Amino acid sequence: MDKQPITLTINGREYNILVAGHHTLLQVMRDQLDLTEVKYGCGRGECGACSVLVDDENEPSGRKVVDSCLILAATMDGRKITTSRGLGESGKPNVVQQAFVDESGIQCGFCTPGMVVKSTALLERNPKATEDEIRFGLEGNICRCTGYVKIVDSVKKAQKAINKKKK
Amino acid sequence: MTTSVVGKRIPKVDSMDKALGTAEYAGDIRMKGMLYGKIIRSLEYAHARVKSIDFKEAEKVPGVVKCLGPDDVTQNGYNTTIMKLLVPEAFNEVFGEISEMYVFNKHVKHQGDAVCGIIAENEEIAERAAEKVKIKYEPLPVYLTAEQSKQPDAVQFTPLKPGNLAGEFDPSFFPGKAYGWPDPETDKWGDDLEPECDVVVSDEFYLNKVKQCQMENNCAVALYDTRGRLNCWSSTQMPKPVQVLLADLFDLPLSRMRYITTIVGGAFGARLGMVCEPHACAMAMAVPGRPVKVEMTREEDWIASETRFPGDYKMKMGFKKDGTPVFVDAHFTGYKGGYYTHGNGPIFCAAAFVHGMYKWQTMRMKGDSYFTNQSPVGAFRGYGNPQTSFVQEQLIDVACEKLGLDSVEWRKKWHKTIGDETWLKGVTYASDDLNGCIDIAAEQFKWYQKKKKYAKQKGPKRRGIGMAVMNHTSGAWPMLLEHTVCTAKLNEDCTIELMQSVSDLGTGGHTAIVQMAADTLGWPLEDIHLKTGDSDVNGFDIGAHASRTVYCGGPATIEACESVKKQLLERASQLLEARVEDLEMDSKKIISVKGNPSKSIDARQIAKQGVYNFFDAASGKQIGIPGQIQGYSSFLANHCSPPMGATFSEVEVDVETGEVKLIELVNAHDIGKAIHPPSVEGQLEGGAQQGLGQVLTEDMLYDEEGHCLNSDFTDYKMLGPSDMPKAKIILVETAPDPIGPMGAKSCGESALMGPIGSVANAIADATGLRFVEAPITPERILRKIKENGITYE
User: Fold this and answer.
1) Of 3.40.50.720, 2.170.16.10, 3.30.365.10, 3.30.590.20, which CATH number belongs to B381-477+639-787?
2) A100 to chain B: nearest residue by CA?
């Protein structure tokens, strides 16, 4: 099988790697690069557990959320990618991660890295999102534990913290 | 001086790792030299015999290490379930299960049944090789209902269960093959009492096949190491029982079977026992020294692992005209799926929670199940109780309407309470504030205001309101074994290593255990670390099922920590020359004589000198008291403190499209004492999402050949964030339980029931029609409106 050289910048680190043409970004991140915070939940873009941020100049924030299971890694040459571990690290979680912890928006935690990525993007795109807009914005990321109540509370808490910081 | 953490809204002990993404789940395990195992499943046939397997082409694929057929692995049978460990040997026949499953099967009993396996250098090679395996099948007739598989000429699923009758209530335990009791005065029971009733209601219901849909697919890693030990890593709910089952399956003593639990990515009953652990271990045994990982795809997880128990559920109730409940008579016929998993458990529980709810003069409930060519059934949050909610709570409303009684008031008057028998005969309620739950929930929901407001509606969109109550359990004593061992090791710096086997399924159970330990000792939370999930260090524990983690793990924790405290005080008593009862310990770990704080000793000094114990060079005397302190508890429960709860729901039904919109849900739960309130709320909020899905959208569908039609998140509709109603959870703590740890009752499964019964009742309120098939989909609503020729103004 032919492999193709690509460069990915993930969480600020540059990876020069050979990828198989048919491998998804999710497969490459998990199996080649050990970035296991990106989760396999369905492999068909239904659950959002593999959500990552990818740079996109059309977005005001400069990045957007994608399901990494739906993208071939070979098409991502030169792109900047951020996962939950790129958003925060031990002792320095980002405001969304901290809010998920504070509001108990986490149960089994399997959807959480994707949920954190999705919520971060949602608030970057629409810092004034209403509750309905937050709920609609989270569609595509499935959680089976929380009934979404405390996830929405977490996003609202993060939103408050972000807007307070801005003032 | 002591700072209590029980009842506080602290962050969970394990949540930061999960937020960052550093938490390691089974699928995240990477090991040196790790191989990948692929289970080859029967996807084309739901019922067939395997005639031959040809690995020739598959073996030629570079990177394939081994191909394994049914004869290449252990020939011992097993059952994914752990029921046989939970009941005495003599009862296993009645309550337990049979070992009729094999690692690889020659008689395929459902789509997704495992037939053979490939071990390869990586996942992709294993998958490519799997495509080259040639399997010849002899197709057999496919049975999708109990009616089909009970026919006399039907192919037998197992010789151990003649007539494909998987289970029924055994007359040796259940006279008349029914759970309940005859009327003490007349000895009549069930509908024998019908002539004596003024109002009788009955109906026949169908309950759906619902999937747990935990977000982490099942995955197991196994290694048969060079010392002859089999090691297995996975995310089970039941670490110790799985260790025992695997040891049995591979004829190993427990000393050579190590089981390690990884973080559990959701379970809800789906991991109550083994899933792909037998396959990973069988493959690992075939390649000693190399770890093998088996990771199921979402589709595999869906069609090959257990689901909720579907089936036909009939119920009849009789009442006196003043509302006095006379009899309930019911019969649940379950569609068992391909294997006898979970014995008769879910059917018994469907009956048990009828038993625990209302003050019937007599009750009779029968239950049986027949094999079908569908994925096996097993545990799913609620375990028979959600089925009962759909049936019983609708019929109570129907009856109240006929009786001309307010259904809320009827429930308040006739539900069981302190002194009445719970779900199990002979075990009585020790605490109850269901009426408190009903009152506060009705008030916050504005039940009576809404009743008036929605009395005369016009137009296609109709609001409806409904309510339901429920009883559940905290652990499964005395039906099942309830045993938890906890060891509290006092480190030399006076911090605690708490060792207990139990998994945290995301419920917050581990946080609650640490909180209870901290409060028992009066020490800061940070000084306690909970070590779980390694059979090499953890003592016995049944696992996380039956809403038992806090209820049974709590007392074990408290006992072990009390023992540590007692030992510290005893040593202090010797060193201070004071009586133990005169001593107290503060949150800074200073032990002093009450009323004489100057006479004190630091517990840290006792802990340190217990470990680093030396002799004084000058005097030759021993400094301090030798020996590392450990607290220990081998706790066996002596009750099941059933919690109760009340749920009120509001829906809007579009009678032109059949669409049901969820408007509001208020759930009040008789928790006794919430150890970690956000976790209790989280259980109730998350349970609601599953209950609402069960009543409205979720159902596994099969075509005539037994192929599952919706084994994915697109075609199997769970409620998403914008589908969920405004939810209000109320924790009622007015009735602390006299038996539960610190007053706590359970909450793990409780939240699923109320939403089911209350939404079914709300839809009936909105449409004027009763729906007896779950889920109540738009199609079913429109069909029923049409069938009944109803036009709405």
Assistant:
1) 3.30.365.10
2) B19
Per the CB < 8 A criterion, the answer to whether A27 and A73 are in contact is: yes
Residue type, B184: P
Token reading at B12: 């969970």
Tell me the three state secondary structure of residue B754. helix
Residues of chain B in contact with residue A100, where contact means CB-CB under 8 angstroms, are 15, 19
CA distance A127 to A116: 15
**pLDDT tens column, B767-789:** 999 999 999 999 999 999 999 99
pLDDT band at B1 (very low <50, low <70, confident <90, very high): very low
pLDDT digits (tens, 9 = 90+) for B146-197: 999 999 999 999 999 999 999 999 898 899 999 999 988 888 998 899 999 9
CA distance B722 to B372: 36
pLDDT (tens digit, 9 = 90+) per residue, B11-23? Answer: 999 999 999 999 9
Q: Do B713 and A146 touch (CB under 8 A)?
A: no
Contact A144 B27 (CB under 8 A): no
Contact A148 B22 (CB under 8 A): no
Identify residue B198 by its one-letter amino acid code. Answer: D
- In angstroms, the Cα distances linking B231 to A24, B224, B277, B284, B285 are 31, 6, 10, 9, 10
pLDDT for B344: 87
The residue of chain B with its CA nearest to that of A22 is: B124
**Which residues, numbered 108 to 127 in chain B, qualify as contacts with chain A under a Cβ-Cβ cut-off of 8 Å?**
122-123
Nearest to A37 among B21, B268, B724 (CB): B21
Determine the straight-line distance between the first and last CA of chain A, rounded to whole angstroms. 54
DSSP state of B724: S
Amino acid (1-letter code) at residue B531: K
Domain A3-86 adopts which CATH fold?
A: Ubiquitin-like (UB roll) (3.10.20)
Where are the domains positioned within chain B?
381-477+639-787, 483-636
Q: B483-636: what CATH class?
A: alpha beta
Could you tell me the sign of the dihedral formed by the alpha carbons of A93, B17, A111, B551, in that order?
Answer: negative
Separation between Cα atoms, residue B235 and residue B259, nearest integer Å: 10
Q: What is the ipTM of this complex?
A: 0.98
Q: What is the second-level CATH architecture of the domain A87-166? A: Orthogonal Bundle (1.10)
DSSP letters along B212-272, please?
---SSPPEEEEEE-TTS-EEEEE--S-HHHHHHHHHHHTT--GGGEEEEE-B----TTTTS
Domains B381-477+639-787 and B483-636 in one fold: yes
For the record, the structure tokens of B120 come out as 């390869």
Q: Name the residue among B567, B556, B554 with its Cα closest to residue B516.
A: B554
Q: What is the DSSP string of A115-163?
A: HHHHHHHHHHH-TT--HHHHHHHHTT---SSSTTHHHHHHHHHHHHHHH
CA distance B37 to B214: 22
- The Cα–Cα gap between B513 and B495 comes to 15
Average of per-residue pLDDT across B67-87: 95
Q: Quick one: closest CA in B to A95, which residue?
A: B19
Domain boundaries, chain A: 3-86, 87-166
Which residues of chain A does B509 touch, with a Cβ-Cβ cutoff of 8 Å? none
Any alpha helices (H) in B404-487, and if so which ranges?
A: 407-414, 434-445, 447-453
What is the amino acid identity at position B462? R
Q: What is the spatial distance between Cα B96 and Cα B160, in angstroms, rounded to a whole number?
A: 13
CB of B665 within 8 Å of any CB in chain A? Answer: no
What type of residue is B498?
Answer: L
Q: What is the pTM of this model?
A: 0.97
B20–A138 CB contact, under 8 Å: no
Residues 6+ apart with CB under 8 A from B709: B701, B702, B703, B715
